[in-house]
Every structure is written in structure tokens, then in C-alpha cells.
């Protein structure tokens, strides 16, 4: 069962993105635009994952071979690792933050916009450095960054949350993205090339 989930979870993202977008537009947009902007980060990121892992896919192969220098498509980062990286952050933390933003304090959700920008910027950076497509780049460039930046701008220009709220959001986003980068670029790279350490 677990191996089936590891293999097929990315296929759910396109359906989740479509259905959640419809629900968010129907039930959140007219009630609270700021909360809508927090919720919309979720389907945008699901589309991002769909591009990375399904169509055109190839993120694991690209990262393992082109970034980490491995000779294998699914080592050192495997499909199991991809599942346990993405599920806690996008399938759990993103919607939980949006729920808490709507029920406790709107500032709780702003980190998702900052994280979306940071993660997308890494895809854009790879594209600029290598001048070559990497899985996730198009959604990063045309949805993650624009939607994330607009969200931050709207929150800032309308004083939706305090400067301290933005700072906390940035710190959380940097901590999550930084942890992923340290794990991927440091610990996983040393598995491929122990001399890097």
C-alpha cells in the first residue's frame, strides 16, 4: 500500500488543484480576499508539484543527476523521500495554516506565500544558471512567484498584518526552505560524493 502511495501520490495534485480552486473561489473569495490569497497558495503549489512529478515530470532524475551528481534517477533522493518531503509541508502544513488563518489569525498563513516565492526562486535560479528547463520552472515563474508576490504586496499595502507578522512569516518560510536545501544540497550530496563534506 505504501509503495503504491509513493508511486502515485503526485497524480492526485492536478485533481486537488482543480477542485480546491473551485471551492476556494466559491466559498472564500467574496467573504475574505486576504484569506482567499492564503488559501489559493495551496492549489498553486499542487500545480507546481504536478509539473515536477507528473507532466512533464522528471524532478527526481533532474535533481539527483544534474544537481547532486548521481548516476541514478532515484538516488539519493527516492520517491519515498519525495513523498515525505511534500506531504507534511503542502498537504498538511499549507491547509492547516489556511484554516488557522481563518479561525485564529490571518498572519498565520502568510508564510505559505513567502515559502512559495522562495521555493519558486530556486527553480528560477536553476534556470538562469544553467539556461535550461527544470521540472517545476513554468509554474514557478508564471504562478508561484506572481501569486506569492501579489499576496505579500496586498497584505503589506493594506496593512492586513503587522510588520512583525511579515517577519515571522519570512522566518518560517526561510526555515522550511533552508532545511530542504541543507538536507538536499548538503546531506544528500555527501552520499553521492563523500569528499564534498
UniProtKB/TrEMBL annotation:
Q: Does the keyword Nucleotide-binding apply?
A: no
The answer on whether this UniProt entry bears the keyword Transmembrane helix reads: yes
Query: Which residue spans traverse the membrane?
Result: 12-40, 81-102, 108-129, 136-156, 162-185
Keyword vocabulary terms for this entry = Membrane, Transmembrane, Transmembrane helix
**Name this polypeptide is given:** HXXEE domain-containing protein
Q: Which organism is it from?
A: Candidatus Desulfacyla euxinica
Amino acid at each position: 500500500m505504501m509503495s503504491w502511495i509513493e508511486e502515485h501520490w503526485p497524480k492526485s495534485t492536478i485533481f486537488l488543484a482543480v477542485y480546491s480552486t473551485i471551492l476556494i473561489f466559491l466559498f472564500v473569495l467574496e467573504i475574505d480576499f486576504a484569506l482567499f490569497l492564503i488559501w489559493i497558495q495551496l492549489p498553486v503549489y499542487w500545480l507546481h508539484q504536478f509539473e515536477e512529478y507528473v507532466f512533464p515530470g522528471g524532478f527526481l532524475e533532474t535533481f539527483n543527476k544534474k544537481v547532486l551528481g548521481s548516476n541514478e534517477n532515484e538516488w539519493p533522493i527516492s520517491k519515498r523521500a519525495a513523498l515525505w518531503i511534500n506531504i507534511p509541508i503542502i498537504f498538511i502544513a499549507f491547509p492547516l495554516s489556511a484554516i488557522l488563518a481563518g479561525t485564529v489569525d490571518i498572519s498565520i498563513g502568510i508564510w505559505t506565500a513567502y515559502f512559495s516565492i522562495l521555493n519558486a526562486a530556486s527553480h528560477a535560479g536553476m534556470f538562469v544558471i544553467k539556461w535550461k528547463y527544470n521540472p517545476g520552472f513554468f509554474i514557478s515563474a508564471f504562478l508561484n512567484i506572481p501569486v506569492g508576490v501579489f499576496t505579500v504586496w496586498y497584505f503589506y499595502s493594506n496593512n492586513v498584518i503587522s510588520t512583525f507578522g511579515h517577519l515571522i512569516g519570512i522566518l518560517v518560510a526561510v526555515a522550511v526552505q533552508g532545511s530542504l536545501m541543507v538536507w538536499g544540497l548538503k546531506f544528500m550530496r555527501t552520499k553521492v560524493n563523500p569528499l564534498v563534506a
